[in-house]
């Protein structure tokens, strides 16, 4: 199941990350760069939903796809956060919280799989809400423009990224609490 359509979409999400980063090096006006990066991010992020839907619909789910999908998401989010940090649209603490949590939870999941308790760190609705909020925040922060004269995307993105940070911490605590009994039991 290595070359199924859902898996190819996941690979495409990883391959597209340099395109999003590369847009910021084009000699275009800043507004055009921001809009292009935001649109690319939306299209690439949408493949996360699409590859899962197709995998279930076409009965092409696989252990490899289940492994690769969250890796692609983490690459996409972390690369985007680093771009936003470089542009001064997010602070270092926000970047540290989001990227640090991704590393910590990935390590926790690996450890839990090793001790046979991976079910305790299975994706939870709180993690999905965190991801959705992060993705929306990143779109607004990449855009950095007035939206139909109603609001500036940077303001909305900033509020959303702070909410995402709170959800990031909350979900990390949730996963750690769920795992703690197994960690204690297996660490003796």
Question: Would you write up a description of this structure?
Answer:
The chain has helices spanning 5-23, 30-57, 63-86, 92-114, 125-143, 153-186; strands at residues 146-147, 151-152. The chain is built from 6 helices and 2 strands; from the N terminus they run H-H-H-H-H-E-E-H. The mean pLDDT is 92. The protein has a two-stranded antiparallel sheet. The chain has a single domain (5-186), classed as CDP-alcohol phosphotransferase transmembrane (TM) domain (Four Helix Bundle (Hemerythrin (Met), subunit A)). With 188 residues, the chain is mainly α. The relative contact order is 0.12. Helices cover 78% and strands 2% of the residues. Helix 1 runs antiparallel to helix 2.
The largest β sheet comes out as: 2 strands, antiparallel
Tally the helices: 6
- Provide the β-strand percentage band: under 5%
| Physical arrangement of strands within the biggest beta sheet | 1-2
Average predicted confidence as pLDDT: 92
Taking pLDDT < 50 over at least 5 consecutive residues as the criterion, the unreliable ranges are none
């Amino acid at each position: 199941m290595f070359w199924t359509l859902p898996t190819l979409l996941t690979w495409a999400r990883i391959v597209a990350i340099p395109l999003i980063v590369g847009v910021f090096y084009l000699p275009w006006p800043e507004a055009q760069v921001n809009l292009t990066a935001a649109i690319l991010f939306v299209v690439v992020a949408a493949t996360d939903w699409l590859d899962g839907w197709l995998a279930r619909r076409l009965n092409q789910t696989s252990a490899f796809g289940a492994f690769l999908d969250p890796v692609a998401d983490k690459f996409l989010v972390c690369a985007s956060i680093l771009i936003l940090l470089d542009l001064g649209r997010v602070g270092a603490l926000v970047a540290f919280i989001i990227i640090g949590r991704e590393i910590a939870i990935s390590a926790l999941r690996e450890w839990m799989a090793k001790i046979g308790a991976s079910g305790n760190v299975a994706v939870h609705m709180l993690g999905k809400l965190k991801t959705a909020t992060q993705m929306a925040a990143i779109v607004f922060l990449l855009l950095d423009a007035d939206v139909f004269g109603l609001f500036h995307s940077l303001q909305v993105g900033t509020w959303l990224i702070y909410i995402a940070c709170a959800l990031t911490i909350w979900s990390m605590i949730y996963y750690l609490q769920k795992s703690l009994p197994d960690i204690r039991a297996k660490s003796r």
